[in-house]
Structure formats: structure tokens, C-alpha cells
UniProtKB/TrEMBL annotation:
Pfam families: p450 (PF00067). It comes from Rehmannia glutinosa. Its cofactor is heme. It is a single-pass membrane protein. Keywords: Heme, Iron, Membrane, Metal-binding, Monooxygenase, Oxidoreductase, Transmembrane, Transmembrane helix. This is Cytochrome P450 protein. PROSITE patterns: CYTOCHROME_P450. The keyword Isomerase does not apply.
Length: 503
């Protein structure tokens, strides 16, 4: 037999064997395993993971919705065992009742260390506590609220609205996700470090290099969680190959930007005191320049990628729900009439608080598209979760906020529908348990920027919607693809055509 045909036959046999192997593993994986405790489905063998990692959120959502307690065990090579859950009781257990047993842990911290260092998102114990305490003072002040209001109003009036006016006049297509990221980036830099990078200045393309480097660093760092062999990134990193080479370069650019902020601010240390978040950290002379850089990067991540993600999905959802848009516009008109305002005037903090329906519409968008769709912790010592599932020492545990928004057991039969009304009672926006809706996390590590985020998101949504109509330039009825980075972004952005409303 000729060598070429022998090769073809061998190739064919390997191909068939691979698929038989996957089939058998899948059958095995779908059986139930018991460990002396309550039984639970076992998922996530290597082939399963490889076949589904590009659609990780949909895959895990489907698995969890089939599990009796919306909880499953996940196994991967390299002794990676863990639990994934969409069960509110388990979320409460890990984030609050048994908080000390579920830190971020070494695995999580190692994967993100190059990008986030020891910043608040990537630290545990005393290092986390001190950052949380220092930052909390700043987030609790009334002056911060006013500062955020002033800065949002400035960014809206002088940058965002003119860009939209210009686009409407020239009938161009805008990537609205990119615009929202630039807005949020300018805003967080001003509020946290008193620096205005002016990324949304001009035609909205300034500062592109840093923005791209930050985006790459976040995408590539989160990509490390998706390696088939979890520690293989170490070899790639050591050899400076492929994605690790790119990551190194993008992190260097991010560091350059953050270092510049620190240098400038340290030089000013003696002149100015305590006027923003960074000055509180600089005031402690024990904090090294490197640690300050980690703090800066964590806050940029917190402020830039979350509100822009939430608003991108919100505007996209709204584009197919004219009835929701109309109700928002009616609410805005009522508030304007009551307060003697006209379109284009800045809304005050109290006026923003009156926007219950808008609040509900944004909250509902984040239920289906949470900016932080997965959160992972490590287990310090063996434990039994509230549904009886065993979790071992050093296992990971992830709660999937994305899946939780799509669980019938949590939200009822209409869980997959976008319905702001589910958040309204007697015309007022009502809160839900943060364990059922852990979009802002819950317990001692709950998001510090929640109020600030709502001020920003409601101000943007109100100002944009009352002046402009948005046509999303995408195939009708097709959902945008998501990009699973550290936050949930839209793959390819959100292309829109803007039209000025006739009033
Ligand atoms: C829609 C907007 C936002 C959402 C959905 C959101 C969500 C979250 C989530 C899920 C966490 C927990 C992350 C983890 O521990 O792994 C978190 C933590 C945090 N967020 Fe937000 N966030 C938002 C906006 C903001 C903003 C604008 C800031 C302001 C800078 C901020 C500051 C923080 C900080 C400092 C933490 C760390 C808390 C800690 O570990 O103690 N967030 N956020």
C-alpha cells in the first residue's frame, strides 16, 4: 500500500477514535457521581471543555439549568476540581456566611498577577483589607458624589453629545461600545486620580493606543483561565511566545501609563492633600510605587469596563423594545416638567433618583448581561455547600451571574425575557437580594462603585435617549456575540447610526 493512502487511513482512524472518545467521555460525564455526600452531576472533562470553551457562558448555563440545585462539579486536568453554581443560597454561603473559607486564592491571583499585581481585585487578607478600608472612605463621601456628578455632566456636555451631534449630521456609523468605554475611562481617571486623559476628546479617537493595550491585557489575562492545560501559560510566558508575548507588550504599555500618573502625583504630594482616591493611598508612605500602580490599574478596570459593558447591552436591548424606550422617555419628560427643566439640562442627583423606570431598565439589562459574568474563589478547607454538595480544600468555586439571570428557578418562566417591569412595585424601583442578583457581588467584597456606576449610567442614558434615537446596525433579531474577557463585552463593538430626535 502506498505511504500516502496509509497516512490517510491512519488519519481517518485517529479522527473517528477521537470522536468516539469524546462521546464516551461525555456519557460518563453526564452520569452522576457520589462522594459519600449528596450526589451531583459531574461536568467539564477536557474534551467537553475544549469543545465548549468558545461558548463557555451558554454551555455552563445549559448545564446548570439541568442540575437539580443549579450546581455542578467541574473537573479539568492538572488536578483542577471545582464547583460551578447558579444557586443563590450557595452564593450567600460563599460570599457572606462562610466568607473566610472562600478567598480569591492562589490560582486566581497567579493568573491575573502580571496584569493586576496586588491591586484590590487580585488580593486577599490584609492586603485586600487595607485597600478596601482606604477606598471605602473615599466612596462614602458626599464630595465624591458631587464630583462624579460634575464630571459626568462635563464629559456629556463637552464630549459625548457633540460627538453624537456630529455623527447624526454626517450620517456616520459609530462604535458606541468604544465611545462608552472612552467616556468611562475619562471619568474614572478624573474621579480616582484627578487626571483627564481626554480619550473622548476630538472625534473620539484620542488615546487609542492605551485603550487597545488595556483591552488586550484584560482579554489575554482572562484567556489564561481557558487553557486546556492550566499551567501551560507559564511555559509560553517563559519562552515569550504567542499570546504571552502580546500580553507582555500590552502590560508594558499599561504600566507606562499608570507609572506616569503615579510619578506626577507623587511629585505633587507635598502640595495637595486628600483630594481624591489616589492621594489617600499616596499619603501612606509605606506604599511602594509598584503597589500604587496596581491600585491604579484595578480602578481603571473597575471603572472603565463595567459601566460601558452594561450600557452597550442596555442600548442594544432597547433597540428591539420601543415600548420600553417610550416609557423611559415619558418618565424623563415628567421629571423635566416637575423640575422646570428642558432637554439638554443637567439632571441633579435627586432627579436621577426619581428615574425609577430607567433604573429598572438598566438593572434588568445587567440581569441578562452582567458586566462581570463569572466570579471565582478558592476553597480553603473542605466544606459542604447548602445544597449538600461537597467541596474539597483547594477546589475552585465559581458563581455564574450570567447563568443566574437565566435560571427559571431564580426568576420564573419568563427568565430569558427583557422585562424592566419585574423591578417595579407601585411605580418604585425595588431592590432584590444581592445573592439572587450578584451583579455587584455581595457580602464584605461587594462592589464599592455601585452608586457611582448608577449615577454615570443613568446620566448617560437619560441625556442620550432624550436627544437621540439609535439604530443598531446589525442583522435584525440576531444577538451580538459576546467576548468573554474579565468583563462581558460585545465582540466587534456596537455599531449604531444616531438620529437627532425632533422635539
Ligand atoms: C455596572 C457597573 C459595575 C458593576 C456591574 C460592578 C461589579 C462588581 C463586581 C462583580 C465586583 C466583585 C469583583 C471581584 O471581587 O471579583 C466588584 C468589585 C469592585 N468594584 Fe465594581 N462594578 C461596577 C462599577 C464599578 C465602578 C464604577 C467602580 C469605581 C471605581 C467600582 C469599584 C469596585 C471596587 C473597588 C471593587 C472591589 C471590591 C473589593 O474587592 O472589596 N465598580 N464590582
Amino acid at each position: 500500500m502506498e505511504v500516502a493512502s496509509l497516512q490517510t487511513i491512519l488519519l481517518f482512524i485517529s479522527f473517528i477514535s477521537f470522536y468516539v472518545y469524546i462521546f464516551l467521555l461525555r456519557r460518563k460525564a453526564n452520569k452522576t457521581a457520589t462522594h459519600g455526600f449528596k450526589s451531583y452531576p459531574l461536568v467539564g472533562t477536557l474534551p467537553d471543555f475544549l469543545l465548549n470553551r468558545h461558548r463557555f457562558l451558554d454551555w455552563t448555563t445549559a448545564i446548570l439549568s439541568r442540575c437539580p440545585t443549579n450546581t455542578a462539579v467541574f473537573r479539568r486536568p492538572g488536578k483542577i476540581h471545582g464547583v460551578i453554581t447558579a444557586n443563590p443560597q450557595i452564593v450567600e454561603h460563599m460570599l457572606k456566611s462562610n466568607f473566610d473559607n472562600f478567598p480569591k486564592g492562589v490560582r486566581f491571583r497567579t493568573l491575573l498577577e502580571d496584569f493586576l499585581g496586588e491591586g484590590i481585585f487580585n488580593s486577599d487578607g490584609d492586603l485586600w483589607k487595607i485597600q478596601r478600608k482606604t477606598a471605602s472612605y473615599e466612596f462614602n463621601t458626599k464630595s465624591l458624589r458631587n464630583f462624579v456628578m460634575e464630571n459626568v455632566a462635563f464629559e456629556l456636555k463637552t464630549r459625548l453629545i457633540p460627538i453624537l451631534e456630529n455623527s447624526a449630521r454626517n450620517d456616520t456609523v459609530l462604535d458606541f461600545q468604544d465611545i462608552l468605554e472612552r467616556f468611562a475611562f475619562d471619568n474614572i481617571c478624573k474621579v480616582a486620580f484627578n487626571v483627564d486623559p481626554g480619550c473622548l476628546g476630538g472625534d473620539g479617537t484620542v488615546g487609542g493606543e492605551f485603550m487597545r493595550a488595556f483591552e488586550d491585557a484584560a482579554n489575554l489575562s482572562s484567556g489564561r483561565f481557558m487553557y486546556a492545560l492550566p499551567s501551560s501559560f507559564i511555559i509560553k510566558k517563559f519562552l515569550n511566545l504567542g499570546s504571552e508575548k502580546k500580553l507582555r507588550k500590552s502590560i508594558a504599555k499599561v504600566h507606562e501609563f499608570a507609572d506616569k500618573i503615579i510619578r506626577t502625583r507623587m511629585e505633587e504630594r507635598s502640595e495637595k492633600k486628600d483630594e481624591d482616591l489616589l492621594s489617600r493611598f499616596i499619603a501612606n508612605t509605606e506604599n511602594s510605587a509598584e503597589f500604587l500602580r496596581d491600585i491604579v490599574i484595578s480602578f481603571i478596570l473597575a471603572g472603565r469596563d463595567t459601566t460601558s459593558s452594561a450600557l452597550s447591552w442596555f442600548f442594544w436591548l432597547l433597540s428591539s423594545k420601543p415600548e420600553v424606550e417610550l416609557k423611559i422617555l415619558q418618565e424623563l419628560e415628567n421629571i423635566r416638567l416637575q423640575n422646570g427643566k428642558t432637554i439638554g439640562d443637567t439632571y441633579s442627583f435627586d432627579e436621577l433618583r426619581e428615574m425609577h423606570y430607567l433604573q429598572a431598565s438598566i438593572t434588568e439589562a445587567m440581569r441578562l448581561y452582567p458586566p462581570v459574568p463569572i466570579d471565582t474563589k478558592a476553597c480553603n478547607k473542605d466544606d459542604i455547600l447548602p445544597d449538600g454538595t461537597f467541596i474539597g480544600k483547594n477546589w475552585f468555586i465559581s458563581y455564574l451571574t450570567f447563568a443566574m439571570g437565566r435560571m427559571e428557578s431564580v426568576w420564573g418562566k419568563d427568565c430569558c425575557e427583557y422585562k424592566p417591569e419585574r423591578w417595579i412595585e407601585n411605580g418604585i424601583w425595588k431592590q432584590e437580594s444581592p445573592f439572587k442578583y450578584p451583579v455587584f457581588h455581595a457580602g464584605p467584597r461587594m462592589c464599592l462603585g455601585k452608586d457611582m456606576a448608577f449615577i454615570q449610567m443613568k446620566s448617560i442614558a437619560a441625556s442620550v435617549l432624550e436627544r437621540f434615537g439609535m439604530d443598531v446596525v446589525m442583522e435584525k433579531g440576531k444577538s451580538p456575540e459576546y467576548l468573554l474577557s474579565l468583563t462581558l463585552r460585545m465582540k466587534g463593538g456596537l455599531p449604531v447610526k444616531v438620529k437627532e430626535r425632533i422635539v
